[in-house]
Amino acid sequence: MLITLDQKTINNKNRIQLVKYIKSLGDQYSTKMGHSVHYSGMPFIRTEYTSQVTNELAIFLILAILVTSAILFYFFRSIKVVFYALIVILVGIIASLATIVLFDFKITLLSGLIPPLIVVIGVPNVIFLLNKYHETFLRTQNKEKSLIESTSKIGRTLFLANLTTSIGFGVFAFTGSGLLVEFGIVAAINVMFTFAISVLLIPIFFSFLSPPETKDLAHFESPQVSKFLLRVEAWVFNHRKSIYLFVGVILAFSIYGLTKIKAVGYIVDDLPQDNAIYTDLKFIEKHFKGVMPFEISIDAREDGRALSPEILTKIKRTEKVIAEYPEFTQGLSILTATKYLYQVYRGGDPKYFVLPSINELNKLASFQTSLNGKDNLFNGFIDAKKRFTRISFQMQDAGTTRTRALFDEIKPRIDSIYLTDSETGELKKEGDPNTFIAKITGNSVIYAFQTEYLQVNLIESTLSAIFLICVLMALLFRSWKMVIISTLPSLIPLLITAGLMGHFGIALKPSTILIFSIAFGISSDGTIYFLTRYKEEFAKNAFDIKKSIQITIQKTGVSMFYTAMILFFGFFIFTASTFKGTQALGVLVSITLLMAMICNLILLPAFLMSLNKKEVSELLED
User: Fold this and answer.
1) What is the pLDDT of residue 482?
2) Would you give the distance in Å from CA 345 to the centre of its chain?
3) Fewest Cβ atoms closer than 10 Å to its Cβ: which of 170, 359, 466, 594?
4) Contact between 592 and 284 (Cβ < 8 Å)
5) Cβ atoms within 10 Å, residue 100
6) 392, β-bridge pairs
7) Which own/partner contact pairs does 61-67 have at CB distance under 8 Å and 24+ positions apart?
């Protein structure tokens, strides 16, 4: 059974209820008759996607809060730390949802990820603020002074770190894709808002509490973290050549993986193969070839000309061309309706389901007007003035690469039909008044072109994010050498992730490309945390490179380790999604951020150790 929805219904929120109602009728029939019923089609797929996204939003939000709370408690062993951190995060969540409403955006597959992302990205602000507060209190033993000093010192670093994260999201606002634009705007705004409420609320909350006790400061002496950081020191101070060699081998492996990446997308490739939407689509593709719309619109250039013998003949030739490709179903058009009417006119004999001669067409026109209500056969394929018509095909979800190849192959063949003068057989140029206009369209074609366009835009956005963050580093350190040193620890994890994608056959598509911009923005945070602290210690310790690095690893390394664990497990919760794109986001960003922490704690100080005192002084000079 084929049900067609008009554009107004498709874009109306009541579509969800309509699709549910139609599905309920099918389910009732299936139960009563004992027959299996399969549902598919673009409106149905879009509706089911929306429903599943809405359901997952609550799940991810709960998981994000539970995971981050558990990790915070494990590290700080303090209920009050978890409690006040959650207050800050809840304000951030409410603000993110309010932003979506304020801008009149909808909850989509991407915007639905923003509240849990705010949880995961916001908690590191709390960690750095509290660790700096506790570290300062150990030295001053004065609560008020410690809060003021720690907030003023770490506040600038947190601002820069959150700004790089915000840039990583914000570049999506320039992709031209509605979903990504909304996602980028809301995420970028709320990353900075969460930073603002963190540096405001955390000092206020802890100013009303009693000074930290010995048990509150015990997390600095965590044996597991201390042991890990001591090993990091040993690697940095004693095995720099081995570090560089290992990184070189990994990069070679990753670059080889890059050569194996394929850029292809499918309309339902974000769904697992046991999902009902996927299995129903494949069932229909197997038995009926497909449900993805592939259409050819025809402009006859004159009112009333769309039903002329000339147009009908060209439609017949067009359907013959498309029939050569196994991806397509048989076409539906005014030609189909004309054949059916002629069969009825001839008493229902199947042999008359053909395009009649010109004389017979004239008779058929009179016969058609005598059939009350039968004119509806043409209504879905022709406009009221009978100038525009269309041929409607359904096709397999063949993937963007194959769909684009089909378009490139079919278009010149279609042009040769509609740009050929019927009387002389001469091929005219497009726009010639003696020719017709035929355009290939439909959701399958639009999706292929949109994906291609989006891939280019996302790559440009990622490069823009890298450039903007490099500019920020240049403004911070006033040295292009330091820009290179500070960028490599964030770029290398991206290359490794891209290499893993190639080795494991993860395709380059919109849902995976956006990972790189997000991950680079967040990865740069660790670089800023490390370098700003190192810069401070380098000046404080008489330009002693080794001692400055050692203190930075031991002090900032604790917060970086805590943050990395929060980010790793926080993003990893997205692997619980039913959508493969969201799963990929969870796995790949988690891996990238874990590697970024390792690079910032091992490779970055190794780079600094390889410089002499004069070079470091020049590079860190304001």
Assistant:
1) 78
2) 54
3) 359
4) no
5) 21
6) 295, 332
7) 61/93, 61/115, 61/116, 61/119, 63/116, 63/573, 63/576, 64/115, 64/116, 64/119, 64/120, 64/570, 64/573, 65/89, 65/119, 67/569, 67/570, 67/573
Query: C-alpha angle 391/15/96, rounded to 5°?
Result: 120
Q: Strand pairing partners for 420?
A: 427
- The pTM assigned to this predicted structure is 0.78
**What order do you get walking across the sheet with 292-299 strand by strand?**
388-395, 292-299, 437-441
CA 142 to chain centre: 47
Tell me the H-state helices in 40-113.
Answer: 42-76, 79-102
Domain ranges for the chain, please list them: 7-37, 43-259+448-619, 287-447
What's the CA gap between 295 and 291, in Å, rounded?
A: 12
User: How confident is the model at residue 191, as a pLDDT?
Assistant: 94
Find the helix or strand (DSSP H, E) in which 296 lies.
Answer: strand 292-299
144 close to 218: Cβ distance less than 8 angstroms: no
| Cα separations in angstroms, 534 against 478, 530, 553, 619 | 16, 6, 9, 12
CATH code that applies to domain 43-259+448-619: 1.20.1640.10
3-state secondary structure at position 505: coil
Q: In this structure, what token pair is assigned to residue 403?
A: 């769909």
pLDDT at 214: 78
Return averaged pLDDT per consecutive 10 residues of the chain, 622 residues in all: 72 76 86 85 79 79 90 87 92 93 84 86 89 88 90 88 90 83 93 94 91 78 84 91 94 91 79 82 84 91 88 92 92 89 86 86 70 60 89 89 92 89 64 80 86 80 84 77 84 90 83 81 86 84 84 88 89 85 85 91 89 61 54
Cβ atoms of 298 and 388 within 8 Å: the answer is yes
Q: What CA–CA distance (Å, rounded) separates 58 from 113?
A: 10
Q: Which residue has the tokens 């995961």?
A: 120
Q: How many CA atoms lie within 13 A of 101 on its CB side?
A: 6
Residues 418 and 126: their CA atoms lie apart, in Å, by 66
CB-count burial class (<10 Å; 0-12, 13-18, 19+) for 600: buried
Nearest Cα to Cα of residue 111 among 53, 156, 164: 53
What pLDDT is recorded for position 102? 93
Rounded to an integer, what distance in angstroms lies between the CA atom of residue 254 and that of residue 497? 8
Instruction: Judge contact between 485 and 473, C-beta under 8 A.
Output: no
Go through the chain and tell me how many residues it has: 622
Amino acid occupying residue 432: D
Q: Which two tokens stand for residue 251?
A: 């990069």
Burial class (CB in 10 A: 0-12, 13-18, 19+), 546: middle
